[in-house]
Specification:
The protein is 38% helix and 27% strand. It is α+β, with helices and mostly antiparallel strands. 48% of the residues are buried. This is 2-polyprenyl-6-methoxyphenol hydroxylase-like FAD-dependent oxidoreductase.
């Protein structure tokens, strides 16, 4: 029988590779597997807020991610109808620009870092089942691309395998605080579009346009609409896509029309917003496997980094002698407490129909430079949603308007 690992990580993207790297850097024996032969593209907003980039900086990986060629973003424009918030957040941990790297550029950096730290990496390997003894997860059964089956054991198995997590399914992890998704999204990539920074623009009739630069001189352009309009939209994606752009942001629509679309349209109807029970005897979940929210606020990857770091710390405590169950319980409690504000804001705004109160706040912020920087600092992770939306702070902003 093979010697047990300290941890086996299922999933090697932006949650799995960091948790594997951080555990391996502490000297633990780690195996990370992924069914995909990376690098490979995947559905993503690509966007990394300052708090996500701060984690890369702390891990010594930010310069390598910058070197992939994703342009620095130093201007953000967020709008609802005629209320336009334009500017940029104050520096967060010294980070003065954001990035939106393609996953084919970002994920290999993370995986190489895990391998360089000493983690064993196996790609093209699928999880077939978990090894469970006396109610405790003790390891995994894996199948390679050629059909070979192998068992590996570990002190803890980590599911970092996305919203449709096989690990979560195998342990029967339930969901809570579930909010049904409101919208669908289509996106693609253009060349020849001027770099105007980050745009998230909500128009009337519950539709949104997002646009920002990414690798290879390409611009990602996305549109979002409510799910009831999906059947009609997909009958003529190209026409409807450009129609939404023209209705919401005519100036940007003209630039997109003048550019060249260089990849196919990708359409997604996202799963529910949810938290999952993310720890149990011998197992834990991280990233979208344990906590998923609408892509509207683009916090998925940055949250994955933050929670990978938190989980690695708690597992390391368990491996050092603290009761592992206590450590993993603390991980989930901390994650949930620290994300509630962002979760509520995301689910509130992602139906693209702001309440009159929120519309009024948008208009008040749009004409107030300090409030704009504060709002964009909340988006970037510099201050919490609870602090920004505190009654006293909102009262100050509204009074100034």
């Amino acid at each position: 029988m093979n010697e047990p690992y300290d941890a086996i990580v299922v999933g090697a993207r932006c949650a799995g590779s960091p948790v594997a790297m951080l555990l391996a850097r502490r000297g633990h024996r780690v195996l990370v597997v992924d069914r995909t032969a990376l690098p490979a593209d995947t559905v993503s907003t690509h966007y990394l807020q300052q708090y996500g980039l701060a984690r890369l900086q702390a891990w010594g990986l930010l310069d390598e991610v910058r070197a992939t060629g994703a342009p620095p973003i130093t201007s953000m424009t967020i709008s609802y109808d005629d209320a336009v918030i334009c500017g940029f957040a104050d520096p967060i941990d010294g980070i003065t620009a954001t990035l939106a790297p393609r996953r084919t550029a970002l994920d290999p950096v993370l995986l190489r870092a895990a391998e360089a730290a000493g983690a064993e990496v196996r790609l093209g390997v699928a999880l077939r089942d978990l090894i469970v003894e006396d109610g405790v997860v003790r390891g995994v059964r894996l199948q390679s691309a050629d059909g070979e089956l192998v068992e590996e054991r570990a002190r803890v198995v980590i599911g970092a395998d996305g919203a449709r997590s096989r690990v979560a399914e195998a342990v029967g992890a339930g969901t809570y605080d579930v909010v049904e998704p409101s919208c669908f999204i289509y996106y693609s990539y253009w060349t020849g579009v001027p770099d105007t920074g980050f745009h998230s623009r909500i128009g009337l009739n519950q539709q949104q346009v997002g646009l920002w630069p990414t690798n290879d001189d390409r611009t990602m352009v996305a549109v979002m609409r409510t799910r009831d309009r999906y059947p009609e939209f997909r009958r003529d994606v190209e026409r409807n896509f450009h129609e939404v752009c023209e209705q919401v942001v005519p100036d940007l629509a003209e630039q997109v029309r003048a550019g060249e679309q260089v990849e196919r349209f990708i359409g997604i109807r996202y799963p529910d917003n949810y938290y999952r029970v993310s720890a149990g005897p011998g197992w834990a979940l991280v990233g979208d496997a344990g906590y998923h929210k609408d892509p509207f606020t683009g916090k998925g990857m940055s949250d994955a980094f933050t929670h990978a770091e938190l989980l690695a710390e708690k597992i390391a405590q368990g491996l050092a002698g603290r009761p592992m169950g206590d450590a993993l319980t603390e991980y989930t409690m901390t994650r949930d407490a620290e994300t509630q504000g962002a979760y509520r804001f995301t689910t509130m705004i992602s139906d693209l129909a702001l309440t009159p109160e929120l519309q009024g706040l948008f208009r008040a912020v749009s004409g107030n430079d300090p409030a704009t920087r504060q709002f964009l600092s909340m988006v970037g992770g510099g201050i919490s949603g609870e602090d920004f939306f505190a009654p006293a702070n909102i009262g100050t902003i509204m009074a100034a308007a």
